Hints:
Elements (H helix, E strand, L loop, with lengths): L8 H9 L6 E5 L3 H14 L3 E5 L2 H10 L4 E5 L8 H10 L8 E6 L1 H6 L10 E4 L4 H17 L1 H8 L3 H12 L6 H14 L3 H12 L5 H13 L3 H14 L4 H13 L3 H14 L4 H13 L3 H15 L7 H13 L3 H14 L4 H17 L3 H21 L10 H13 L3 H14 L4 H13 L3 H27 L3 H14 L3 H18 L3 H17 L4 H17 L13
Parallel strand pairs: 1-2, 1-3, 3-4, 4-5
Amino acid sequence: MPxxxxxxxxxxxxKIGKDFPRMRVLLVDRHSGARHTLRSILSTLGFTAIHNAAxxxxxxxxxxGNDFDLILSDYHLDDGRDGQQLLExxxxxxxxxxxxxxxxxxxxxxxxxxxxxxxxAPDDYLIKPFTAEQLQTRLTRALHKKRFFARVLRHLDEGAxxxxxxxxxxxxxxxxxxxxDTLRFKGEILNxxxxxxxxxxxxxxxxxxxxxxxxRMGLAxxxxxxxxxxxxxxxxxxxxxxxxxxxxxxxxxxxxREEQGRLAExxxxxxxxxxxSPNNSLRQRLVGEVAARNEDxxxxxxxxxxxxxxxxxxxxRVIDDYTNLTRVMLDRGNVAGARLVTQxxxxxxxxxxxxxxxxxxxxxxxxxxxxEPAKAREALDKALALHARMxxxxxxxxxxxxxxxxxxxxxxxxxxAGNEAQAQAILGKVAAxxxxxxxxxxxxxxxxxxxxxxxxxxxLLAKVGREIVELNNRGVMAARSGDLExxxxxxxxxxxxxxxxxxxxxxxxxxxxxxxxxxxxxxxGQRGLRYLQLAQGKDPRSPKVLSARExxxxxxxxxxxxxxxxxxxxxx
Length: 572
């Protein structure tokens, strides 16, 4: 096969065009006439399997039953949402593979305002009006690039990062116009795996030839991973100054400053980015969280309100979006507003146990603030009964278990009602499972402070910290002694008692290492996989989690065991 650089545009169009009849296409446009016109153009280009959708709801229905090679979406959809939001949902939930081409169709002014600052950018865009020739050229280019990176994308979809890295190395040995893109993939994979020293070399290699923004960003991430925080922050700040619309740099610098306790500075940067890209729900949520921790309740309420507005009708909406806003409103003394949000929560999540639990908890907190202790206690008793039932009916890794924030709010209601013992038990468990999450620990301490029990909170958190250190040290010492089986037993005990990210990863890796040395044991292997999946649920992008998954894939390959896809989304 000739190198891509040796292929002319016409030859490339002819080559890729041969596959058009076998590709599945989804057209998304609120106007039937526009869909008909675009369908006719695609038909003349050779596409035959063409599906239609007018709304995001129809898209989701079609996605569940088909694997699409190409999605062409108008920016404006019929249900008040837009194509950029649709792309966010599809990518964030992994409802489409990385090999699927997503092309946005928009007007010039819309493109300038939306696409140019989109973090989850489409593979390409078309500005109305356009010709069949222009469409063919853009489709060919996008499909060609996807085809070139097919192996890399497939491995990434599977969570096989080491295999994706090997595929990058193979591509780098070729002469292609995608050399820089390949280095970008390589650097991102190395950073994801926590191999920051190697990523640093890759990005420095790129920057020696061209000062591209993504390489500067990747280098900053690598430096932070290596503990060089000042240098990483300096790079991020310079990137913002040179490219004011490169939003990832704002997020990065804000995260560095937040880690250092510089909440006001972090909030300011996140707000600047949110002002540039107001339709990004994930960023608005970040603004709200940091503002709440920074006790800027006005900003927190605005941000959380925008999240709810943006996510209305979206499959990306979560119960915590409602409780976040309710909590801030209560802190501001706006009980009427909190009641209204809780009503919306109960309506939008009717029949969902998590939604009902969250609504009952918020009812209790609202009643307590209104000076109605009997009503607060009644709602709390119902919430505690429902919470106990949910714990009894579902395992610890059940998808429909209560969120950690809802659980903390439940403990808050207990404290407010004078049930300190039950609150301590609940918060001790949450603190142990999230001891590395500084935002959650701060949230727990804040609950104690709000209820006049600051010292009790500090005592509890210190006790939890000591227990975790003790559990971890026992497993580490056993591993260092060379007694792998004893280490596995101790780490399993730690993971069962405290299923936090650290213990889950440590236990899974110890199990897989033992299986590699001693041979496959189905029961033990299943336990290790369960711990890995639990860890993925907490933070699927953690280098620790990815490292454990890579180890599992190696062991599974050795013994001929099928590996499930990462638990980051599904078509169910």
